[in-house]
UniProtKB/TrEMBL annotation:
Protein name as catalogued: Aspartate aminotransferase
Gene Ontology BP annotations: glycine biosynthetic process, by transamination of glyoxylate
Record keyword Amino-acid biosynthesis present: no
Positions annotated to bind substrate: R321
An MF annotation (GO) of this entry: alanine-glyoxylate transaminase activity
Pfam family name, one: Aminotran_5
Modified residues annotated as N6-(pyridoxal phosphate)lysine in this record: K168
Designated gene of the protein: aspC
Coiled coil ranges: none
Alphabetized UniProt keyword annotations: Aminotransferase, Pyridoxal phosphate, Transferase
Protein origin, superkingdom: Bacteria
Species this protein is from: Streptomyces naganishii JCM 4654
Family indicated by similarity: Belongs to the class-V pyridoxal-phosphate-dependent aminotransferase family.
Length: 366
C-alpha cells in the first residue's frame, strides 16, 4: 500500500514552475514570482537583506508587530530607518507617508504591511505606492495577511517586492511562501554587495539558478508536501473564484463588527473606521474592567476550536482577536464566536444582547 504523504513521485520542475505561474495569476502580476521553501518570514527577510544596505534610507511603516520586525532587519542591514508608527486602532494614510518623504527626502525604500492579522487594520497600498513611485523609492509589501481576503495587486500598485503566504485567508499551508520581484528590485539586489548569495536567504541564487536558467532544474529538493498543498489551495481558490473567497472574508469582518456593536457589554471594534478594518481578522477592545486574555479563556471553555485569541504582548490586556480567515470565514464560525464572547461576558458579570448581535451580523451575509 502506498502512503498518501510518503510514497510520492518527486515534484517535477515543470510542476513547480506551474505553481509559481498560478501564484502570479492570483496576484495579476507580470513580475517574476519566486516560491520560497519556508514560512513567509523567509521571503520577508530575504527581500530586505537583498535590497537594503548601509546606503539605504528606509521608511518603515509600523501598524503592528511585523513592522517592528522589519525595522529591526533593516537596521541590522545597516540601513538608516525612519519609523512611522501609527496607533493600532487606525491605518496609515498616504498623506502621512508624503509628509515623511518631505521631512526625509533621502528615503529610497518603503516598507509596509498591507493588513495586520495581529492588529486588525489594513492600509491603502495603492495610494502609498503612488507616493513611493513619485519619489523613486523601492516599495516592499507584506501581503501575507491580506492575500485571499482582499485584492493584492503588485503591478497596479507599483509594489516591487510583494510577499505572500498561504496560511491565512488562502486557507493553505504555512511551510512555503512566495514573493513577486520587480525588475527594479532585482537591479537593487544585483547592485547590493551585501545581498545574500550562496545562502538560503538568497533571492539572487533563485534568479540565477532557477528563473534565469529557464526553470528547468530545481536548485534543491523542494518542500514537496507543502508545494502540493499550495497547488491544491490555489486550485480551490480558482474553482470557487478569488472574488468569492474575498467576499466571504469581507462578510465575516463586517458581521463580526456589526455583531459586536449590537452585543453591548462594553466590547467594541478595536479599529474605529470600517474602511481601515482588515477583512482577514477583526480585533476587539475589551471594557476597562475586563482583561482580554481572561475573556478569551472563558470564551474558549465552551469550544476550544474557535478562532479566538488575545492580542500579543501588552495587547493581551485589552485586545481580542477574531481570526475569521480561511475555513473560519463563515457565518457559522462568526456566530459561534459572538455567542461564546457573549457567554464569557455574562460569566464575568456583564450583560449582553446576543439576539441583537446575531441579527445585526445576519444582515451582512449575502
Ligand atoms: C501571519 C503573518 C505573517 C506570517 O507570520 P506567522 O506568524 O508565522 O504566521 C507575516 N506577516 C503578517 C502581516 C502576518 O499577519
Amino acid at each position: 500500500m502506498t502512503h498518501p504523504f510518503l510514497d510520492l513521485a518527486p515534484l517535477s520542475a515543470a510542476r513547480f514552475a506551474s505553481i509559481e505561474d498560478r501564484v502570479a495569476r492570483l496576484l495579476g502580476t507580470e513580475q517574476d514570482v519566486v516560491i520560497m521553501q519556508g514560512e513567509a518570514l523567509l521571503p520577508l527577510e530575504s527581500a530586505i537583506r537583498g535590497t537594503a544596505g548601509p546606503g539605504t534610507t528606509a521608511l518603515n511603516v509600523i501598524t503592528g508587530p511585523y513592522g517592528q520586525t522589519f525595522g529591526d532587519w533593516l537596521r541590522d542591514c545597516g540601513a538608516t530607518v525612519v519609523d512611522l508608527a501609527v496607533p493600532y486602532h487606525t491605518a496609515v494614510t498616504a498623506e502621512q507617508v508624503r509628509e515623511a518623504f518631505a521631512a526625509h527626502p533621502e528615503i529610497d525604500f518603503v516598507s509596509l504591511v498591507h493588513a495586520e492579522a495581529a492588529t486588525g487594520n489594513t492600509n491603502p497600498v495603492g495610494e502609498i505606492g503612488e507616493v513611493a513611485r513619485e519619489r523613486g523609492a523601492l516599495f516592499y509589501l507584506d501581503a501575507v495577511a491580506s492575500v485571499g481576503a482582499e485584492p493584492v495587486l503588485p503591478d497596479a500598485w507599483g509594489v516591487d517586492l510583494c510577499v505572500i503566504g498561504a496560511q491565512k485567508a488562502m486557507g493553505g499551508p504555512a511551510g512555503v511562501s512566495a514573493v513577486s520581484v520587480s525588475e527594479r528590485a532585482w537591479a537593487r539586489m544585483a547592485a547590493n554587495p551585501r545581498a545574500p548569495r550562496r545562502s538560503y536567504l538568497s533571492l539572487l541564487d533563485w534568479k540565477e539558478r532557477w528563473t534565469d536558467a529557464g526553470r528547468r532544474a530545481l536548485p534543491h529538493a523542494p518542500a514537496q508536501l507543502e508545494m502540493l498543498a499550495l497547488e491544491a489551495c490555489l486550485e480551490r481558490i480558482e474553482s470557487v473564484g478569488a472574488e468569492a473567497v474575498m467576499a466571504r472574508h469581507r462578510s465575516a469582518a463586517a458581521a463580526t463588527r456589526a455583531g459586536v456593536r449590537a452585543l453591548g457589554g462594553g466590547l467594541e471594534p478595536y479599529v474605529h473606521d470600517d474602511r481601515e478594518a482588515a477583512p482577514v481578522a477583526t480585533t476587539l477592545r475589551t471594557p476597562p474592567h475586563i482583561t482580554a486574555s481572561e475573556l478569551v479563556a472563558r470564551a474558549l471553555e465552551t469550544d476550544p476550536s474557535l478562532p479566538l485569541a488575545a492580542g500579543g504582548g501588552a495587547l493581551a490586556k485589552e485586545m481580542v482577536r477574531v481570526n475569521h480567515y480561511g475555513p473560519a470565514a463563515t457565518r457559522e464560525t462568526v456566530d459561534a464566536c459572538l455567542t461564546a464572547l457573549s457567554s464569557a461576558l455574562t460569566a464575568l458579570g456583564t450583560g449582553t444582547d446576543l439576539r441583537s448581535a446575531l441579527e445585526a451580523g445576519a444582515t451582512v451575509w449575502p
